[in-house]
Design brief:
This protein is mainly alpha-helical. Helices cover about 55% and strands about 0% of the residues.
Length: about 70
Amino acid sequence: MGIGGISIWQLLIILAIVIMLFGTKRLRTLGSDLGSAVKGFRKSMQDDGSVDTTTGKDPEEEPAAPVDKGK
């Protein structure tokens, strides 16, 4: 018994059918596209709390003191 009652032979047959339908080149590009999407999603989740989307600045950073230009 494999995963959920599916044996290794059934998984290999499904894999062979998928390869025959789509081809290895298309599956490779699909895999790289999916990997890029996951990478971008993870990056956006890490950056989500560190930058305010309206101002583009770090919300925890203190605002700069006003500069006195003198007269």
